[in-house]
Amino acid sequence: MSSYLVLVILSILEIGRYKARYKAMNYQALLNSPFVPGISVIAPAYNESATIRNGVHTLLALNYPKFEVIIINDGSTDDTLEQLIDEYELKEVDFAYNEEIVTQPVKRIFKSTNPVFSKLTVIDKTNGKSKADASNAGINIANYPLFLCTDIDCILHQDTLIKMVKPFVEETTRVIATGAVIRIANSCELENGYMKRVKVASGFLPLFQELEYIRAFLLGRMAWSRINGLMLVSGGLGLFDKEIVLKAGGYNHVSFGEDMELITRMRIWMHDQKLKYKVTYIPDSLCWTEVPSTLKVFGNQRTRWAKGLIQTIWFHKKAFFNPKYKIFGMLSFPYWVFFEWLAPIIEATGILFYIYLIVSGHITWSYTLIMLAFIYSFSVMVTIISILWDEISGSHYTKKREIFKLCLAAMVEPFVFHPIVLFFSIKGNWFFFTRKQLKWGDMKRKGFNDSNTLVYQNEQP
Questions:
Q1: In the structure, what pLDDT confidence band is assigned to residue 192 with cuts at 50, 70 and 90?
Q2: N or C, fewer C-beta in 10 Å, the chain?
Q3: What is the per-residue DSSP string for 54-110?
Q4: Which residues are within 8 A (CB) of 435 and not within 5 positions of it... i.e. 6 or more apart?
Q5: What angle separates helix 204-214 from helix 400-416, to the nearest 10 degrees?
Q6: 210: how many CB neighbours lie within 10 A of its CB?
Q7: Among candidates 53, 125, 47, 63, which has minimal Cα distance to 89?
């Protein structure tokens, strides 16, 4: 509870600092400046036939003076590549491909014959069975010193690049990675590939995931950004220093949590080289993504996340309480060990012990109910603070009843949603310790077609 209160305070301080520092930011000056760093936008695509056209159009329309878009067709079995060739008038070209990070073979590279799409490069490669392998191929071909990693089915704000580059050009200490708030698009309204109206998700699982996202991004990650202790920049939207990523070895294609694992490895590399650095987060909502709406897909995702977390901790266990790695080794890494990895195991053990106490009659109900009520109230309070702080800092929802809906969901979340998350966290631990294989596989999900109606498509995690 103390740690949550500290995170709340740090988050409020960091968001306040950000708003005060950048409220008078002259974006037009940055857009017109010849000195802004170039950015390579990297988006892997696997069987994205339903969204590939709109997705690429949205990326090409980003508001930034110097950028390129790199689409990696990761061995799609549908007509994703054919649609790209047709829509953007692509032609295979001879390209000097320097494989600084080893990936599955790159078969062809395409450029558009239409000058309008001169920023677009398409890579056709053998399927690497992970987003990490495809992203590494994009990094190999990237021309600019910074790269933005995203998903082709994500909906990005038009000013994403200009806002995310701010820490790189403003901070005096070298910034190696920056993230931004990601929100849920399941019930939102789109127009021509852009967000028209943000609405609270209506389905059971998406609604509670929206609470999770608000709490994680506005409280958790902003608080860790305040003390330069971030251990995770989401794979859906992250801006990286390409030089440091290459020196750290790129994405780990065998990890189920490649985004966290990369940040961890980059931080360790910087400390090993005794270089000062920052990993930052900004509180602007710049990306909308669709979250799982079925229990099967949700369970697959959370099991992978749990296994990926343990993999990252195991791969880099040398950082655990190691003063060489400063705040990262003495605070951030141990926090993820105790509060993210071990917490579900301890909680599940506690529940089983409670059941034993009830069955055996060794429980004092008066004290137990008071304690449970206190814990429940604290949990709901933290979530509602997140919701209200999100509304104060961003005001994303147009109707008050949507805020009320989120607050009501916060009151029932500990009973109906948290147990599901707990179960799949334990399942991820089981898969790791029993060395049971967890396949990436194809997952059916929903996406938007040209008419902004929901369609089904396959997604490679």
A1: low
A2: N
A3: HHHHHHHT-S-SSEEEEEEEES-SSSHHHHHHHHHTEEE-------SS--SPEEEEE
A4: none
A5: 100
A6: 22
A7: 53
Q: Give the amino acid at 316.
A: H
Distance CA 218, CA 214 (A): 6
For residue 405 the two structure tokens come to 């809906």
pLDDT tier, 457 (very low <50, low <70, confident <90, very high otherwise): very low
**Within 13 Å of residue 428, how many CA atoms lie on the same side as its CB?**
27
Q: Are strands 237-241 and 278-289 parallel, antiparallel or unpaired?
A: unpaired
DSSP single-letter state for residue 221: I
Q: Is 301 left (phi over 0), alpha (psi -120 to 50) or beta?
A: alpha
Among 168-177, 303-312, 341-350, 384-393, the minimum mean pLDDT is found in 384-393
Whole-model pTM? 0.90
Return the higher-pLDDT residue of 398 and 295: 295
Token pair, residue 388, equals 């209200």
- Determine the 3-state secondary structure of 177 from DSSP: strand
* CB distance 97 to 109 below 8 Å: yes
Q: Convert the pLDDT of each residue in 36-51 to its tens digit.
A: 899 999 999 999 888 8
